[in-house]
Design a protein that fits this description.
Helix content is about 75%, strand content about 0%. By secondary structure, the chain is an all-alpha fold. The protein folds into two domains: about 180 residues, Growth Hormone, Chain: A (Up-down Bundle); about 220 residues, MFS general substrate transporter like domains (Growth Hormone, Chain: A), CATH 1.20.1250.20. It is globular and about 75 Å long.
Length: about 525
């Protein structure tokens, strides 16, 4: 027999010996190798998944609006020249916080978010992403309830950190799920609908927190949002999980490791080999994480996008926290929570959706996304700057509304770039590092820094103008991205399929129950 035919015969013999053995002898469940496709589609249709993630995202950002609202955040205790003092209200009044300490509460949850985001992103390679979301939302629910029961500044600060840990699991994984399931011609529009929930949630939080804080007590606002999130935390564990796209190369490595050396191996030897491989994989996770990080950091397109996003988020974070208080002091708004909430809801929804639909209509690409990012941010900066220069309340409302419209038009394009400038297996880490970066260098320092600035100059109009000018820096950074060579790495064929050992039955990602078994195999 010629040598080449002998090798083919030996390879087929090995395959028969391995796969002829009962799955239980190999330490695998019988469903983990093959599973017949179901007769009916999974509950997780793409549209339902999008709606589910949008609602969860909105509740996440309702929490941001709640703690910034005047009804919950409250006001500091003040005394006049005659020594007559008025008691403070809300969190700031109850715990007697300075503006700097008050700003720290806005940034406290970011600590948990920053630490947990890369961890959850790395765990997606060894655990079901949807189960990780369930764990995170459970932590979020308990932490939000803890905020309502806080008895000191440090206790509520720790609870805010745990809220960030819970949010980390969702923020870094939801966008890749949506990008996987969205129709090709509507990917940016679907991302826009998801990120539209950011301004909408913050605005609803302003209104909800202002109403509950003024009519009942600021603590009830946190308990209410915890009850809203509880069903979704249970949902993450109760339903069959989904998985993300991963590299075909990883699947082939797994397949080859099962086949090679299977001849003349007993079941005990196979189990020992499997344990050895698991230990080896755990030890290699750190080196793999370092390699993935290096791949992101040397990517010029990704770096420019994140630098622009940091400057942008520095402004947005301070706007969302200090906006109602600045509006109350500059224009003497009696209902600042309602006013800022209404403007943010309308302009946030219209701006975010417009940015996504326009990019899709232009046949979405990274190059066109950078053009839209720089142009919209520059226009938004101009209108917001002019708004704070005006003395008229009505003039401020008109110009600030136009500014917010253009500023929020960047939400879908900036995340489109983060998802499409890296290969599919790096998307969870890309979103996690993006989240970590924009918070640790953006809105984490911005709220307390603007608090310190205001404590020193005691002029809300000047503080707002200084803050708004940073948007011009964001526009300039994103304009640099227009000149960079950029390819859509998400179209890399070597990383475009779901990891599976069995033959693909042609079922879409979100249809059928075979996904989980393929992931386990």
């Amino acid at each position: 027999m010629p040598l080449c035919y002998y090798r083919q015969h030996l390879q087929k013999k090995r395959e028969r010996q391995v796969f002829a053995a009962p799955p239980e002898e190999m330490g695998l469940s019988s469903s983990s190798i093959t599973k017949d496709p179901p007769a009916t589609p999974s509950w997780f249709t793409p549209e339902r998944l999008l709606i589910l993630f949008c609602v969860i995202n909105m509740i996440n950002y309702v929490d941001r609006g709640v703690i910034a609202s005047n009804g919950v955040n409250g006001s500091i205790r003040t005394c006049d020249d005659k020594g007559i003092c008025t008691s403070g209200s809300g969190i700031q009044g109850e715990f007697d916080l300075t503006n700097f300490q008050d700003g720290l509460l806005s940034s406290a949850f970011m600590v948990g978010l920053l630490v947990a985001s890369p961890i959850f992103a790395s765990l997606t390679k060894s655990h079901h992403p949807f189960r990780l979301i369930g764990v995170g939302l459970s932590v979020w629910t308990l932490a939000a309830a803890g905020c309502g029961g806080a008895f000191s500044f440090w206790f509520i600060a720790i609870c805010r950190m745990l809220v960030g840990v819970g949010e980390a699991s969702f923020i870094s994984l939801a966008a890749p799920f949506i990008d996987d399931s969205a129709p090709v011609s509507q990917k940016t529009a679907w991302l826009a609908m998801f990120y539209m929930c950011i301004p909408t949630g913050i605005a609803v939080g302003y209104v909800y927190g202002g109403f509950v804080g003024s009519q009942f007590n600021w603590r009830y606002a946190f308990w209410g949002e915890a009850l809203l999130m509880l069903p979704f935390a249970v949902f993450g564990f109760a339903f069959e999980p989904l998985q993300l796209k991963v590299a075909d190369s990883e699947a082939s490595k797994l397949h080859d490791n099962i086949l090679v050396g299977a001849d003349s191996m007993s079941v005990d030897e196979l189990k020992k080999t499997s344990k050895s491989v698991n230990i080896h994989n755990m030890l290699n996770q750190f080196s793999q994480f370092a390699e993935d990080m290096k791949a992101l950091l040397v990517d010029k397109v990704y770096a420019v996008n994140i630098f622009g996003y940091i400057a942008y988020n520095f402004v947005i974070g301070a706007y969302s926290y200090w906006g109602p208080k600045a509006g109350y002091n500059i224009y003497h708004m009696e209902n600042a929570d309602m006013m800022f909430g209404g403007i943010t809801i309308v302009c946030g929804i219209l701006g975010t959706l417009s940015g996504g639909f326009i990019l899709d209509r232009l046949s979405a690409s990274i190059y066109k996304a950078f053009i839209l990012l720089s142009g919209a941010t520059c226009l938004g900066a101009i209108f917001c700057f002019l708004a704070f220069c005006l003395r008229s309340l009505y003039g401020f409302i008109v110009f600030f509304a136009l500014g917010e419209f253009f500023v929020f038009a960047t939400q879908a394009p900036v995340n489109y770039v983060s998802l499409h400038c890296v290969k599919p297996s790096l998307r969870p880490l890309s979103m996690a590092i993006s989240t970590v970066s924009i918070h640790i260098f953006g809105d984490v320092p911005s709220s307390p820094l603007i608090g310190v600035l205001q404590d020193n100059i005691n002029n809300w109009r000047a503080s707002a103008l200084i803050l708004t000018s940073i948007l011009f820096l964001a526009a300039g950074i994103w304009f640099i991205g227009v000149s960079l060579h950029s390819d859509d790495a998400s179209n890399d064929r070597s990383e475009s399929q779901v990891c599976t050992v069995t033959v693909d039955n042609g079922t879409p990602l979100l249809y059928g129950n075979g996904d989980e078994s393929s992931y386990e195999a």
